[in-house]
Every structure is written in structure tokens, then in C-alpha cells.
Amino acid sequence: MSAHIANGRLVVWLTIFIGMMFKIMPLPSMVEHWRPDWLLMVMVYWAMALPHRYSILTAWVLGVMLDVLLGATLGIRSLALSLVIYIVVLLCQRLRNYPRWQQSLVIAGLICVYHAVIFWVQFVVVGETPFDLTMFLPAISSLFIWWWVFWILRNIRRRYKVR
Description:
Largest sheet: none
Number of strands: 0
Distance between the termini: 12 Å
Radius of gyration: 16 Å
Order of helices and strands: HHHHHHH
Shape: globular
Structural class: mainly alpha
């Protein structure tokens, strides 16, 4: 029984690691603004599927790690990621029952909240951060990719019996 639990945790952390790698991998400048928020989508899935195990503390730690990897002001992404995951944990029962197209719209809205919080904190802390609508482009790309992310992670969860 304990091997099942450890195996499930390893699978979840592996998917989170892959989401982190997709978040920080370099892309051509032409498509950089359209990069989906891979780590956020993976965290939203696990917070919906297992809210008692992967929630705000996990999001905060991953946000600090992401700030360190991106060389950003420490704590900005951890605040934004924790806030979004808090909303997901609050609404996880509803989100599970939504059809995938409605989940995609909610995910896009949450990604907009994530980027708005990052912008707001950077504006308050750093100062002269210009407002640019391109910061919401990842919400559009994530809107279409959420179906695939959900399907892949659900199949992984079922295959490896993650509970």
C-alpha cells in the first residue's frame, strides 16, 4: 500500500516538473507571448483532482522556485500562483462537474487573474511597469490546450492510480 502512495506522489511531481520545464524552456520571440501557462494548468489539474494533497503550499513553493528560475522578484509568482490555486480549491467540486469547454473558460479566466496579479505586484514593487495586453495572450492559448492537458493528466492519474 505504501508503494502505491509513494508511486502516485512520484508521478504527480514528475508531471509538475515537466510543467515547470515547459514554462521555462526558451521559445522563439515570435511565439513567446503565446506560451501557455503549463505549470499553472498542471497545478490547477492536481488541485482539482487532489485538493487535500496539492494546494496552496505546493503552489507557493513552486512559485518561489519559478521566481528563482526566471530571475524575477522573489515572491511575485508564488503569490499569484497561490491565489489562483486557492480559488481552484474553493471551487474544485464545481469545476469537476463542469464540461471541458466550461472548464477551459474558467482556466482562461484564472490565467488572466494570475497575470493581472503579477502585473499589479510588479507595478507596486518595481514601479514603472508598462501595461501591455500581450500579457493575456497565454490565457487564449491555454484555453485551447486545457482539453489536452486535462485528458493527459487524467489518463496518467488513472493508469498509475494516483489518489
